Amino acid sequence: MVEKQITWLQTDYKVNEVLNIAVAKFKAAGVAQPINDARILLGHSLNKPNERFYGRERDVIKSEHLDDFSSKILRRCKREPVSKIIGAKEFWCLDLLVSPDVLDPRPDSETLIEAAIKQFPDKNRILNILDLGTGSGCLLLAALQEWPHSYGLGIDIDSRCIEIAKINAKRNELDDRAKFQTGNWASNLDEKFDIILCNPPYIPTNKIAKLNEEVRLYEPTIALNGGQTGLDCYVELAAQFSNLLSSDGLIFLEIGFGQKKQILGIMRSNSLKLIKIEKDLAQIDRCLILSHKHC
After folding, report:
1. pLDDT at 1
2. Predicted TM-score (pTM) of this structure
3. Do residues 290 and 234 lie in contact, with contact meaning Cβ atoms separated by under 8 Å?
């Protein structure tokens, strides 16, 4: 059982002492990376977000910082992700603001950017890029970072996500080329795009309750729930993709484990053709690359 508070008996502590306290509590709570998490959270409590304290374990921490660190320890013990506690997450080469309203960017989704780079190797091309269900803006902003002469639009149904995405664009100096707007996928959008990026919700409704606590309790359900079969959003998207795609454009679509066959059937029935399937780091089919059927 997680304690309600940590009682600090001394005025000052050494770094290694408070780290040991945090690590012990994290291990007791079943946290996967107790040492790494403790060092990250301590850095943020001391307003030194990039500090990991290697070689500084004997440094003294003033008591004024201990209550904040205690709060972060207890939040992590309740399985709140580190990213939600510190309000930041790295994706690609980006430093992104995150909140309880947006899905944390995940390494698996970087597969879409890697796939796009392989298909569009000329970084000097001027591309029009669309990110559907943009969330934090991670996919669009990563793409704009790779193609510095390109422009893009991110759409999300949640206005809170759009505000976060706008902040992230400015934070990474990409706001001059990135636009964001609320919308239900691409409804009423009259424009053609060379690259369409999309990571839709794809977890079946009845599996949401079985997800690990860090996802189930702290990620927005709207970004996870793909309906009864997990395929609802793919059906909606497939009906819109052809009207959005330029003549030689490509779609980079994230899929969940074991969904490839069904999603391909949905896409093919909507005049789209499979170009390639890219696997993630775990060698799981993660990204469908699609084009117009006539290409």
Report:
1. 44
2. 0.92
3. no
pLDDT in tens, 20-74: 999 999 999 999 999 999 999 999 999 898 888 888 878 888 888 888 999 999 9
- Beta-strand (E) ranges in the chain? 13-14, 60-61, 88-91, 94-97, 128-132, 151-156, 178-182, 193-198, 245-254, 272-279, 285-292
Q: Cα separation of 243 and 181, whole Å?
A: 19
Give the architecture-level CATH label for domain 100-292.
3-Layer(aba) Sandwich (3.40)
**Domain regions of the chain by residue span:** 13-78, 100-292
Where the chain has pLDDT below 50, the residues are 1-2
In this structure, which long-range contacts are made by residues 45-50, counting pairs with CB atoms below 8 Å and at least 24 apart in sequence? Answer: 45/69, 45/72, 49/86, 49/88
Q: Is 26 exposed, middle or buried (0-12, 13-18, 19+ CB in 10 A)?
A: buried
Three-state DSSP at 158 gives: coil
Q: Which of the 8 DSSP states describes residue 191? A: -
Q: What 3-state class would DSSP assign to 276? A: strand
- What is the Cα–Cα distance from 217 to 195, expressed in whole angstroms? 33
